[in-house]
Structure formats: structure tokens, C-alpha cells
Amino acid sequence: MPIKILMPALSPTMETGNLTKWNVKVGDAVKSGMVLAEIETDKATMEVEAVDEGVVAKLVVAEGTADVPVNAVIAVLAEEGEDVAAAAAAADGAAPATSKAEAPEVEEKAQPAEAPKAEAPKQEAPKAESSRSGEGDRVFASPLARRVAKEKGLDLKSVKGSGPKGRIILRDVEGAEATPKAAAPAPLASAPAAAPAPKPAGASDEVTLKLFDPESYELIPHDGMRKTIARRLTESKQTVPHFYVTVDVEIDALLALRKDINDAAPTIDGKPTYKVSVNDMVIKAYALALKAVPDAHVSWTDGGMLKHRHADVGVAVSIPGGLITPIVRKADEKSLSTISNEVKDLAKRAKDRKLKPEEYQGGTTSVSNLGMFGVKDFAAVINPPHATILAVGAGEQRAVVKNGQLAVATVMSVTLSTDHRAVDGALGAELLKAFKGFIEKPMSMLV
Amino acid sequence: MSQYDILIIGSGPGGYVAAIRAAQLGLKVGVVERAHVGGICPNWGCIPAKALLRSAEIFHYIEHAADYGIKAEKPGVDIPAIVKRSRGIAQQMSQGVGFLLKKNKVDLIWGEATIAAPGKVKVKAIDGAPKGWLPAGDFEAKHIIVATGARPRVLPGLEPDKKLVWTYFESMVPEALPKRLLVVGSGAIGIEFASFYRALGSEVTVVEVMSQVMPVEDHEIADLAKKRFEKAGMKILLEAKVASLKKGANEVTATVELKDGSKQEIVADRVISAVGVVGNVENLGLEGLGVKIERGTIVTDGLGRTNVPGIYAIGDVAGPPMLAHKAEHEGTLCVEAIAGLHPHPMDKLQIPGCTYCHPQVASVGLTEKKAKEAGYELKIGRFPFIGNGKAVALGEPEGLVKTIFDAKTGRLLGAHLVGAEVTEMIQGFVVAMQLETTEEELMHTVFPHPTVSETMHESVLAAYGRAIHI
């Protein structure tokens, strides 16, 4: 029997992946543990290892193919003693090959084409009450919620239930807005697919392209990361009510302490074992501030407020083609040198796209620092389910007034974006106050 | 010094249920009590009062035995025996609570508690510790739940003296039947005692400051109940208040000011002051900790949290409605939230209320007046007991089930019942509300025949013009 190699699910949320590279070719003998291919998911590049032994009979999916669904056959192995050609032929019937040239087309059309098909039976369902969708996924909702939803023209599938075991109850539909019946797949269905980036209303690709002479541009297909950034940040700005608070912090004491700390670093082979950056200190101060103002250390869910116990701080790292936020777990409990070395390691592997999903998924908040570009002040977009993100500007010498006298101080502006559903303005201000306290009295971070 | 996850002050329905729920969730729990194991409800409230009312009910049946074709000798009332039965039941229930707490490995601490600081409770020794309880001392707990309940409200000029002016404590253990009784206040406590004493033969006058008896109930239900009380021989003065009270050796003369400003003197052997209850918020150290208290009760969110982290309040002390089942549910929610289970805060509109006067009254949700004030367009169903075979067979043809629906959505906004057995029926509507049924599911529900509960079904049908038996 030929052995089929399937597209693996490399993270719990992965639906598709891009097959970026084959490390084997037809005829190669494969041993268990051997790296067969490299797969690019939405944020990372990962290796596919062989589980079975055999000889590569056929590479079903060509190198460079995008959006290969999880569990699709990507290659066929012939077992020991099996005829390679026969195994390849046997596999042909099962899975048609996708060539590299076709890939962009598949990417554009595959998802939208499937979705309406899945939707069709629902629209024909009697009374469109969506209790019986024909797909077996029953929507649990109270009779009253059903009736109110029906009157509002609300598709219950688009509503998140807050009752026991996710049952949709009156309060869930009372505040919800009507969903147009002809709408594309409801969020539940479209979220995992997620392939087409959400388009701003009215500006379809066609309309946009028509504005430009075909000779005047080059169309570069989006990679997984670009699509994820587009989807997540659109979702954030559309669903999270952002609120911004800015504060100036003086960092002269912090810079002095940083120098002391780095001067005291032990050396191995003449190289210091750590070099703490201002950003490392910002991460630590922010983590401690979140612990000091626990009401601001939360995530919004419709069912209730998640109050986090550990400050897991995501650090936005700009990498070619996008950005990613690896997470410093329990930053409040870690020393500055530990944080510093961890961030260096995470940033390096982020640039190589070698982070494991658990290293960039989750987290309770993020820090984004554009100070190195000389940016004075900016506001960052929250990365749900976080309720906050701290945008850090450049530390620069500014004229300040102290005790009625003009003086020079190194000042850094930071802007906190908060999810107003979870963190109100005053609470955000309180968090920044705590942050400012740690930054301006940096020794307090060490005790 | 013992360290608890949760320390609960007060072992009433709120406190002991919270303790048992916490123990079920694997938390280390202690309960402090200073007087009655199980609190007022089993000792001096709900339960012994029901025992008394049952005696009154039996007496009522025997007095009317001839209506049912039964010959009975002239029945008599043995007050000490009635009280003895009631106290026996109270004791049994109180011991039961102690047993349940021990079974769930809850530490029981006897004494008077004050919260020294968040996380720290000082318990002062007092006499009367039941066997097996821990002695007083200092205790630490991550979470402290105040469940100290409430006590009778005292009106100036109507101060209880244990002899002539009673609270529910003295009313529960009369030595003899007062010939003439004045009841001030017609809420659940007042009207139940009025019913009890009237049934046994006292001349009862009820003075109520509001324009209806049982002021929280729907006016239509209250008016029907009032007619029945008056038919039973009770005197009821509405929009009236006791202006002054003159005490004699063994009787009192009350001057009652009526609606029109005129005054009426009422001579009574005993007065029951039932003008409400107030939360036990004092001497707990709450003021020093800055715990927010409004109108005599502790301010909490829907999950028992006060404004001070680590300090919670449930039950009567956390505000109205001051009902045992509200306290129990609040206790459960509070503990589950502490344990991180994310319960939903309680919807106070779905707390039923039951009054065991004769006839019984039970209700849940909005009254007609409140529903109108809230801006709903209403569909109202009424079904009288006279149209129900079982009620007539029982000899209880006087009663009414009133259901109030939101005309737009079919949401059941309120249900109000008066008549025999209604306190055992109301939960049908409570379940319906909790599950958010509309009139349609209630109509589709098969109610068993012959039962009084069929009146509930008919009332729903009546709201939509479909009642069968009327």
C-alpha cells in the first residue's frame, strides 16, 4: 500500500499552509525523522518530518504552492518492495496534483467558491431559523432569543452565546446588529478559512486594480503572515473600541541604572553575558505595572472578564515582510538580564521565521517600540485578545520645567492603547502612572 | 492561626450554602456564627413560621370539616403544643445545617467576628458554643464573605419590648393567644402572623402605610388577597400609620392616623412590629475598611464583591430582596466567582417570592404596574381557580393566576398567583423565565390533569385569548 503524506496541522488554529520547499525528490529513500519539506504557516516556517519509511513515489503538491488545506495529500511514499511508479499511479486518482503555476488562482478562488456552497442549504432551510442548518451544527439558543433574533433579522450563527455551555440568550441578541441575509459566510465559518483578507467595504480588488495602468505595477501575492496581519488588525480595529492615553516619562535615572547594570555584566571569553536595552527595562516596568494594577491586566470576553495572573508580554518584532510578537512569559518575575537574553533569542528566531506557535500565540499584552526610528509618539493597534498595547517612542533630550526652572531631561513618550470594553480611561491612566513610577524610579524594579 | 481560602461570617442560608459550595469546589472554608446555627431562616424565620401556619391550616380544615362531610368534635387550640412542635422543627433544621457543614469538612468557629483588615478576621469568644466548634481567635483568609443577615427594623415609638410589642422572635413563641392583636406592616412577615393568629381566633387588625397589602406584590393579587383576609375577619387599614402607642399593664392603645387625617384608637393585647428588616452591618469593622454601605446594606456587584478587594457580602446584608433563596443563590455565585468559574451575576427579576398567608401568594418578575412603567406593551392573562376542577374539588375555588407578557416578543415578564398551593407552583414560571421561553413553549407544555397547575397553563392561554375553561 502506498503511504500518503498529509499536510500536517502545525498549530491548533492552522487551516492551510504554504509548501515552501521540498527537501526530497521522487526516488529518494526516506527514513523516519527525516525532514521532508518546509511549510510556512501564518507566522512561522516549520519542518515536516517523516514518520514512515519508504521511497518517495510522487510529490503531489508542487514546491511554492500556497494555501494547501490541512490533511491534503502532499506526497506519496512507496513501501519497501513496492513499485514506485505503481504507487504514484495509485495515488493519482485520489489527489490531483496542483502545479506551481496554478497556485495563485487556487488561492484566490478556492475559499470563496467553497463557502457559498456550504451556505446554500441554510438559506433554503424553512423559515431560515437556522436551528437546523443541515450541517449538523445545531445552534443552541433560548426560544426568546430565537424570536428576537428573527424579528431583528439576525443570523444566530453570528451571535456568541453567553448562557450555559454557550447557549444564546436574550441579552446576546438584544445588543447585536442585524446581519444581512445574503452575507458571505458567518464569522464562525469564515474565521478559520481566513484566506481572503477582509476587504474594506466597497473597494473590491477589481475596482482597485482598474485605477491603475496594468503596466504600472507589480502584483505580489500575500503570504500567510501578511494575510494574518490584515485579518487580525482589521478585526481589532472593527471590534475593539480603542482608547488612547499618552504620558511622558523621564528616563535619565533609567539610563544611568542601565549603564551600571551593563558595566557590571560578567564576561565569558571577553563578551558580556548580557546587555540590557531600554526596551528590556520597558518590558519589565510594564509587566510590574500590570501586576500593580491588576484590573487593567485583563482580556474581554462576552462571558466575563479574564483577569490574568501572569504578565506575558508580547514584544512586537519587525521582520522582513511583516511583524510578529513573540512573548516573554511571566516578565514580572524575570530579571532584566533574563528578559534581555530571551528577547534577543526570540527576535533572532522570529527573523528566521523559526518561532514555535506557542512562542507567539497568547500573551496578555504587548509592547511596540519605534524609538529606534526616532519616532516621538504613536498609537498601536491592540492585538486581541489583549486589552492593552504600549507604544514606546524615542528617548530624547527635551526642555522641561522643574521647580519653575528650565532644565534638560531625557524624555520618552509612551502611548497606551486600551480596549475600552475592558479597561476604562481612568484605569488605563492608572496603569501608565504605575509604569511611569517604575521607569522614573528604576531601582524599584530590582526589589 | 488557621489560613482559609474563604472565611464566612454568618451561617444562615447565604453563609452555609456558600460554605458547602466552596467545600465542593475544594476550597478550605470556615464559618463563624454567634447565635443560631443556620441563621434566622430555620431558627426564627421561614421554617418555624411554616410549622405554625400548618397548625393554623389544620385547625382551619377541622373547623370547616362539615363542608367536606366530616363530623368533628368542637376543635380547640393548644398554643404551647403548637409552639413546641414549631420549636422542635426549628431545632431539627438547625442541627441539620450543622451536620451538613461538618459533613463537608467546613470549620465551624463560635464567636463574634470583626474584620481587622482584608484577609484577617478576629473572632471574640462568647458563650454557648455547640459541641465540636472551634474556639474564638485570629484567623486569616484570602476571601472574607459577610453573610450576617438582617434583624427587625425598629420604628421610633414602636420599639419592641418583648412583652407588649413583639418582633417575629416573640411572635413565634406566644405563651397564650392574644385576644386582640395589632399587626403593623403587611409585608410577608406581618401578614403571615396576622393570618396565623386570625386563624386561631385572635381579633386581628393590620395597619399598612402603603395603599395595598403586601406592597411588593401586584395590586390585583393584593386586592384579592385583602378581600379574603377581610372575609376571614381581619381588619385592614391601608394608608394608615401608628401615630402613638400608649402602653398599659397588659394592653396597649394605639392611635392610628388614617388617610383622611382622622385618628382612630385601637386597643390591643399585643402589637407585632413587622415594618421590615435592616442589614446587620455594624461592629464588623466594615466602616474602618471603607466598605461601601448604602441604606443599611453593603453595596455589592452581582457576584457579591464589595468595593474592597477580598471582602464580599451576600444575602440580606447585601440588600433586597431579603429572602433566603436569594441569599443561597448569591452565596453560590460569589463562591463560584472566587473559584474562577465565571458564573453569571444574578438577575433579581427572576427571584420568586412566596407568602404563606391564607390564601397563599406567590410571584416572580415584574408587576403589571412596573412592567408598564418600564415601557412594555403588555399582554395579560388571568385565570381564576373557579374554572379549575381540582381547585373546586379541594374546596379552594378562590384564587387567580395572572401572567404578564411583553406583547412584542412573547417574553414572560411576570407571574402573580394567589390561592391554594401557589407557593409550590410558582417555580414552573421561574423555570420558564430562566430558560427564556415565550408564550408558545408554555402553551405547548402539557400540564397534568387534574392539578391546580392547569390554572397556570390557562392563564398563559388567556393572555392570547385562547383560554379554554372560561
TrEMBL record, chain A:
UniProt keyword Acyltransferase present: yes
Domain Peripheral subunit-binding (PSBD): start-end pairs: 140-177
Coiled-coil residues: none
Entry GO CC: pyruvate dehydrogenase complex
Residue span of region Disordered: 95-143, 181-203
Cross-referenced CDD domains: lipoyl_domain
Keyword Acyltransferase found: yes
Keywords of this entry: Acyltransferase, Lipoyl, Pyruvate, Transferase
Pfam families, sorted: 2-oxoacid_dh, Biotin_lipoyl, E3_binding
Cofactor detail note: Binds 1 lipoyl cofactor covalently.
EC number(s) given by UniProt: 2.3.1.12
GO molecular function, one term: dihydrolipoyllysine-residue acetyltransferase activity
Cofactor: (R)-lipoate
Record-level GO BP terms: pyruvate decarboxylation to acetyl-CoA
Ranges for domain Lipoyl-binding: 2-78
Ranges annotated as biased composition (Basic and acidic residues): 102-138
Function: The pyruvate dehydrogenase complex catalyzes the overall conversion of pyruvate to acetyl-CoA and CO(2). It contains multiple copies of three enzymatic components: pyruvate dehydrogenase (E1), dihydrolipoamide acetyltransferase (E2) and lipoamide dehydrogenase (E3).
Subunit architecture: Forms a 24-polypeptide structural core with octahedral symmetry.
Family of this protein: Belongs to the 2-oxoacid dehydrogenase family.
Protein name: Acetyltransferase component of pyruvate dehydrogenase complex
Species per Swiss-Prot/TrEMBL record: Pleomorphomonas diazotrophica
Automatic annotation (TrEMBL), chain B:
Binding site for NAD(+): G185, S186, G187, A188, I189, G190, I191, E192, E208, G276
The EC number(s) this enzyme carries: 1.8.1.4
Cofactor note: Binds 1 FAD per subunit.
Substrates-to-products reaction catalysed: N(6)-[(R)-dihydrolipoyl]-L-lysyl-[protein] + NAD(+) = N(6)-[(R)-lipoyl]-L-lysyl-[protein] + NADH + H(+)
Residues involved in FAD binding: K50, D316, M322, L323, A324, H325
Keyword ATP-binding: no
Start and end residues of each Pyridine nucleotide-disulphide oxidoreductase dimerisation domain: 351-459
Needed cofactors: FAD
Subcellular location: Cytoplasm
Keywords: FAD, Flavoprotein, NAD, Nucleotide-binding, Oxidoreductase, Redox-active center
Name of the top EC class for this enzyme: oxidoreductase
GO BP term, pick one: 2-oxoglutarate metabolic process
Disulfide-linked positions: C41-C46
InterPro entries: Class-I_Pyr_Nuc-Dis_Oxidored, FAD/NAD-bd_sf, FAD/NAD-binding_dom, FAD/NAD-linked_Rdtase_dimer_sf, Lipoamide_DH, Pyr_nuc-diS_OxRdtase, Pyr_nucl-diS_OxRdtase_dimer
Stated family: Belongs to the class-I pyridine nucleotide-disulfide oxidoreductase family.
Protein's UniProt name: Dihydrolipoyl dehydrogenase
Recorded name of the encoding gene: lpdA
